[in-house]
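Q: Give me the 3D complex with 2-succinylbenzoate.
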Amino acid sequence: MKIDAIRLRELHMPLVKPFETSFGVTTNRRVLLVEVQSEGLTGWAECTAGEHPHFCEESIATAWQVLEHELAPLVLETNPEHGGDCPRIFWQIRGNRMAKAALENAIWDLQAQREGVSLSDLLGGTRERIPCGVSLGIQKTIPELMSIIERELAAGYQRIKLKCKPGWDIEVFEKVRTRWPDITLSCDANSAYRMRDFDHLANFDAFDLLMIEQPLWYDDFYFHAMLQKRLNTAICLDESIRNRRDALAAIENESCRIINIKLGRVGGFSEAIRVHNVTQERGVPVWCGGMLESGIGRAHNIALSSLENFSLPGDVSASKRYWAEDIIEPEVTVEPTGEIVVPKTAGRGFEVRTKLIEKLTVRKTTVKAVVSS
Ligand code: OSB
Ligand code: MG
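A: Here is the predicted complex, encoded as C-alpha cells.
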C-alpha cells in the first residue's frame, strides 16, 4: 500500500485519579499517537511507553525520536502490504519495541479498514466477548482500597488485581480475602522483591491468589524459576517477556505458569500473535495487560484479546475508569457480566474523535515520503 504520510502527536490527558505502582505514581498521561495516512484512509495506534523509562527502557521521548528518525522513514520507503511486514522492515533496529509496535499496529488498523474486516478478524480472533478484570493501584489506606474493590465487583469485573510492594502486601491480602473469600484475586509487584524476600513471598500462598505477577527483576528468568519452585501460587511474567523466544525460554525454564501479553512490550501485533501461538501450543494461558491506554490502545487490546488462548480476564477495562472523556466513540464499556463485546464492524470498531484529539495535542510532526524526481 502507498503510505502518504506518518503523523506523530503527543496529547496531554489527566487520569481520573492517580495510579500508583511499586515504581511510582502517574497523574497525567502523555499519550503518543501514530497516524498512518494512505490513499484517503488513516490507521491509528498508540505508543504505550510511559512518561519515564520506569516500566522498561523506553519513554515517550525515546519512542518519538525513534519513530520520527528511524522507523517512519523505513516504512515510507518500503510501502508495506501488511502490518505483518513490519518486523522484517525494522530488522536492523534493536529494541525500541513500544515505538515499533505503535507504527506496526497503525498499519494493521489501516489494513482492516481497507479490507473491510474487523481488526479482530484480521488478527484471527475467535472470541465475541472478552473477560475483564481490573488492576488496582496502591492506595493511601486499606479502607479506601476496600471501597474501590466493592465498586469494581458491583460493576461485574471478573478478577481483581492488586498492585503490591513490600509494606503493601500481606496485610492487604488478609483484609481483602477475609471480606471476599471467593473472588478471583491476583497481585502485581512490578519487580519490587528480591531474593531475600523468598520466605516472605511464600506466605502469599495462604491467600489463594490466581497469580503473582513479576515479583523479581524486570529482565529475569532464572531467579523467577527458583522462586516458582518455592511457591504453590503461579508466577505470571509481564516485564520479562519481550518476544516469542522469551516466552518459550520462560516456559521451558519453568519461570512462570501464566504469561501477560502487552502489545507494546512485545513490539506489536505480529509478535503478540507469535507469543500467543507458542503459549497455546504449550498449554500456558495468557491474558492481555494494560498500560493506562487511551481508547485507541484500548481498542487494539480488545482485538488482541479476542484470540483463543486469552482465556484469563485481562486488564482491559472501561474507558471511564481512567478518563473523564475518551478519544474514541463510543467509549469502551463493560457489560454487567464483566465482559467487553468485541466489535465486528470494519477496522478497530471505535471512531477516533479527531476534534478532541486536536484540542488535546501539545505537539505534532508529520513525516512524508521523499519524492524522487
Ligand atoms: O504492570 O500491568 C502493569 C500500568 C502501568 C504500567 C504497568 C502496569 C500497569 C497496570 C495498569 O497494571 C493496567 C491498566 O491499564 O488497566
Ligand atoms: Mg504487570
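A quick observation: The chain has a mean pLDDT of 97.
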